[in-house]
Amino acid sequence: MLDLPTEFIEKYQQLLGEEEAQKLVASLQTESKKAYRINSLKFKQKTPKSTDQPVPDIPHAYYGEVSSQDPEWVSGSVYSQDPAAMFPAYIAKVEPGENVLDLCAAPGGKTTALSEALKNKGLLVANEISATRVKALRENLERFGISNALITNNDSEALAKKFPNFFDTILVDAPCSGEGMFRKNPDAITYWSQDYVLTCAERQKDILTEAVKMLKPNGKLIYSTCTFSPEEDEAIVLWLVEKYGMTIEKANHVVSEKVSYGNPSFINSDLEDLKKTLRFWPQDNLGEGQFAAILRMPDEEVEVKSKKKKKQKNRKGLTNEEKGFVKKVLDHFNLPESLQNWEENACVRQDHVFIPAINPSELKGLKIVNNGVELGLLKKNRFEPGHQLAEVLGQVDQENVVELDSSEDYKKYLHGETLRVKTELRGFILVAREGFIFSFGKVTGNGVLKNFYPKGLRILKDE
Ligand SMILES: C[S@@+](CC[C@H](N)C(=O)[O-])C[C@H]1O[C@@H](n2cnc3c(N)ncnc32)[C@H](O)[C@@H]1O
Predict the structure, then answer these.
(1) Taking Cα atoms as reference points, which of 169, 117, 458, 433 lies closest to residue 295?
(2) Choices 3.20.20.370, 3.40.50.150, 3.30.70.20, 3.40.50.300: CATH for 31-296
(3) 130 lines ligand 1 (CB under 6 A)
């Protein structure tokens, strides 16, 4: 039984009326809804899990649970996500080729959805301020096989200096008081207070002030929170409208009756357009609490002080000999479109071969966690493919694959063990379970499968 603060209950009695507030409080005492999205960049290989109960409006999303040890998850073919949290990226309606920023991105639920919409074309900058949380963001994007992402670990000010008037779409899924997460994460109740709500609202304005500087004229801002408090929802949208002349757009493709709309009277405003914003209440039985709005910048640039761009240095490409080593490995696999020009685009830095999403010389001063696709490592007279490459190759059909046909072998591989396999294949191969490619491996002459599943991802035996 959740122990909700009296001040919280009274606040929503005032805003919603006795009856609706009672429904909200009762729904918070029930179990949270679990769901997952299928990765559309990979699911042509195989349709994972049951698809009986679709999440309304969201393509390829279903109610149900996925464990982080299931091959569907390990291979990045699905992402577990609260159904309501699927909407902010969905309403962004991102098109392949755009420059997109997810400013508060970890662990990456919305980033993975944005990256699917981009179809590996254009640029996705995924930023997270917390050095701990950015690791999960990197792992999730890697599993999804995303090749056009730059992952950064900066505050919004540092990013705004690098990318003035640059993005077509920016998602700010802001840190908030988390009221919508009370039943999923009861810890959020312990630090809730009305003062905390107001502190969050100030932080949201600080983050958005920087976000706006990075939008192109006429660019789109998606603002979302997982809280009900109007101070962090309608009031922030009103602030953006009044301060920057932004306009609120309706998400025409959201039609489910389980989705509610913003309410200007919550903040004593008469701005009718606030009714175009989206609200998700747990008592409506879709998922957890969420708020989302689409805002459009006016067709003029926000003036931003930025340093003059220095002439870009050419990146350090591969020598013909190095290309030969890489080619020798890549020739055994079918390459997705995003890797087809790898010889022209690959760079090398401290023996790491990668295809950058953005020229590294443009990124001085930022904390870069990953830039594009790491193909692998140059060793003495050979090339060893990296894990991210395996996940990218998993987006297309492959023949050079060893399927682990028992769950015991699969578990052993995830633990990092070496296996003996029956296969005619030799050298670097992709490893799959139930058709889901999730790692590289190397088969030696006597049929021993050497383990290339990264140490940092290995699952301990007693997990
Ligand atoms: C609601 S969570 C994001 C969830 C994520 N979008 C997803 O769907 O998986 C908000 C994130 O913002 C980060 N954050 C907090 N302060 C920030 C700031 N000043 N600038 C950027 N991110 C910030 C938090 O560390 C947290 O990871």
Answers:
(1) 169
(2) 3.40.50.150
(3) yes
